[in-house]
Amino acid sequence: MFMSREEKERCVIDLYYNQGKTTREIIKELRVSPNYVSGVLKKEEEKNNSIVTNNQQQQSSSLATKAYQLLSHGKHLYKSPSY
């Protein structure tokens, strides 16, 4: 059976992350090279890292936006101590 490149990549990702197969088991099962498997896994890891980084950037910028909005409306971010 012929698998497209995209199908093969999805299969590598599924076998590794969801089924817990080792790279050796994936190589044997799919009959692909070790370089192919490591390349697919590296690409997936980079994709996941960029998603996490983007989410963190969005969260920090949204906090900065909220702080700016509070300050622009004359509100303070903290309460001053009463003496």
How would you describe what is shown here?
With 83 residues, the protein is mainly alpha-helical. The chain has a domain at 5-59: Arc Repressor Mutant, subunit A (Orthogonal Bundle), CATH 1.10.10. 73% of the residues lie in helices and 0% in strands. The protein contains three helices and no strands. The chain has helices spanning 5-18, 23-30, 34-72. Helix 1 crosses helix 3 (34-72). The longest helix is centred in the middle third of the chain and has 39 residues, at 34-72. The chain is rod-shaped. The model has no long low-confidence stretch (mean pLDDT 83).
List the helices and strands and how they pair.
Blueprint: H1 5-18, H2 23-30, H3 34-72
Q: Provide the structure class.
A: mainly alpha
Percent range of helical residues: over 70%
Order of helices and strands: HHH
Rg: 23 Å
The count of strands amounts to 0
Into which percentage range does the β-strand content fall? under 5%
N- to C-terminal distance? 79 Å
Low-confidence stretches: none
CATH second-level architecture of the domain at 5-59: Orthogonal Bundle
Task: Write out key terms for the chains shown.
3 helices; Arc Repressor Mutant, subunit A; rod-shaped; single chain; mainly alpha; 83 residues
Give me a quick take on this structure.
This protein has 83 residues and is an all-alpha fold. The chain is built from 3 helices and no strands.
